[in-house]
Specification:
- This protein is α/β, with parallel strands linked by helices.
- It contains 14 helices and 15 strands.
- The longest helix is centred in the last third of the chain and has 26 residues, at about 420-445.
Length: about 450
């Protein structure tokens, strides 16, 4: 349909071409064309139906709280079936570019235009992202926990790995540019850490320990442990399996493996309230933990017998506090599944430690210089514990990277991040946003000289 046809059918409608909605040019055209007090921006291609008095509800709150952006929960509508779709509250750490606002973002026109005046020219993908970051510095972003509209034809897309997909590289470059500018504006931007660590000034009986937290993984634990036992290295290492009171037969398998392998430590914590992070703390503080603590999840395996050596080689070369590898994504039978290789090439030595706040993960496997991770510890949670530790380390220390896949990560029905309900996904995202909130606060204090 031609623009003139639209204008004929809807006489109060102004039309213009967009490329895409998120571009600087599109947003500037919207600001210039809007003549009303408010702007209701529909940010998806779904068919939207506002609920009873929804507009009045949103506009009254926009006045009451001087809000920069308002969004709300909604219903997914499919075949006349309504499914509630709750969202999460925005907080200072909600800086990932894929934060879910639903299908509608509601702006006061004066606040929208104020931010548009500062919006960098030339963004094709990061315009809307940059706009809301700018608005968030001065005005509250408010979620209304009410189902104010229906969204029909909503396509569910797994965007978990968008930021590591090479096809999206141009998008990510823009997003990183916008986010880096935001960090500078709020005084949370850090310069690259440059100091080398003295990795060998303390005595450790083993140079490395493979840490495996586990609870009820009878189907996979033998494969994980044997993957670690089969490593070939030029240094001594051990495996510390932290068995979190398994009751499905996992414990019996580990007892048998420990009897026949002297360098396998089967550890059952005294505490019964530990999550994955707490199990990691048990492992890194064990008296026999090696100089480097290296991750292996209980349902994954190393790619080959040289993984551990490759990780320690990077520690030796870069004298860093943490090494992060790359992995191949597979199903339970080890058949590759999209997007196959997760290598996090968006990380750069110059800005990776800043950009890490924008994305939802750092990669795997993860390995830590034990004295440093002992001083930081992991939060006692089962999701995001590694991300929190990695952000804290990246604040002050160098992180080494391995971009060739050295790890096999299986996605199956038993994984903690597979087949998530909306509520579980929301709780995970809210927690990672909270991690970012605390990290941004810490970095601002560090830059202000208030934090040592």
């Amino acid at each position: 349909m031609k623009s003139s046809d639209l204008e004929f059918r809807f006489p109060n409608c102004t039309t213009f071409k967009i490329d895409p909605l998120s571009s600087s040019e599109t947003l500037k055209q919207i600001s210039k064309s809007a003549r009303s007090e408010f702007i209701l921006l529909i940010i998806s291609e779904s068919e939207i139906e506002l609920g009873q008095y929804a507009y009045e509800r949103i506009s009254s709150l926009a006045h009451s709280f001087n809000s920069g952006i308002i969004y709300s929960d909604y219903f997914d509508k499919e075949n006349d079936l309504l499914t509630p779709h709750p969202l999460i509250d925005y907080q200072p750490g909600s800086v990932r570019d894929n934060f879910n606002f639903g299908h509608i973002m509601f702006f006061r026109k004066d606040i929208f235009s104020e931010a548009i005046d500062k919006l960098m020219e030339g963004y094709k993908y990061a315009g809307l992202y940059s706009l809301r970051l700018d608005i968030s510095m001065k005005y509250p972003i408010i979620r209304i926990p009410e189902y104010l509209y229906l969204a029909k034809g909503n396509e569910i897309i797994d965007r978990q790995f968008d930021y590591v997909d090479s096809k999206n590289r141009s998008v990510q470059v823009e997003m990183e540019l916008a986010f880096t500018d935001y960090l500078k504006n709020i005084n949370a931007f850090l310069k690259p850490p440059v100091n080398d660590l003295e990795l060998y000034d303390q005595y450790f009986k083993n140079d490395a320990s493979v840490i495996i937290p586990v609870k009820n993984r009878i189907r996979t634990i033998s494969g994980a442990v044997n993957s670690a036992l089969n490593q070939k290295t030029d240094f001594p290492f051990n495996i510390i399996v932290v068995d979190n009171h398994s009751d499905d037969g996992t414990t019996e398998i580990l007892k048998s493996l420990a009897k026949s392998n002297r360098n396998l430590i089967h550890l059952i914590p005294e505490e019964v309230n530990l999550n994955i992070g707490g199990c990691w703390n048990e492992g890194i503080h064990h008296t026999d933990c090696g100089r480097f603590a290296v991750q292996l999840d209980s349902d994954d395996i190393y790619s080959d017998e040289n993984t551990l050596q490759k990780i320690v080689n990077v520690f030796r070369k870069d004298k860093c506090a943490m090494v992060i590898g790359s992995y191949q994504l597979t199903d339970f039978q080890y058949s590759p599944i999209p997007p196959r290789i997760i290598d996090h090439r968006e990380w750069t030595k110059e800005n990776g430690f800043n950009n890490a706040l924008r994305i939802n993960g750092l990669g795997a496997p993860r390995a830590f210089f034990t004295p440093i991770i002992r001083s930081i510890n992991f939060p006692n949670v089962s999701y995001g514990e590694d991300y929190a530790a990695g952000l804290a380390i990246s604040r002050c220390y160098k992180i080494g990277r391995i971009y060739d896949p050295i790890y096999v990560c299986r996605r199956w029905e038993g994984n903690s991040d597979s087949f998530l309900s909306i509520e579980k996904e929301n709780s995970y995202n809210f927690y990672k946003d909270k991690i970012r909130t605390l990290e941004i606060l810490t970095r601002r204090q560090l830059n202000a000289g208030e934090y040592d």
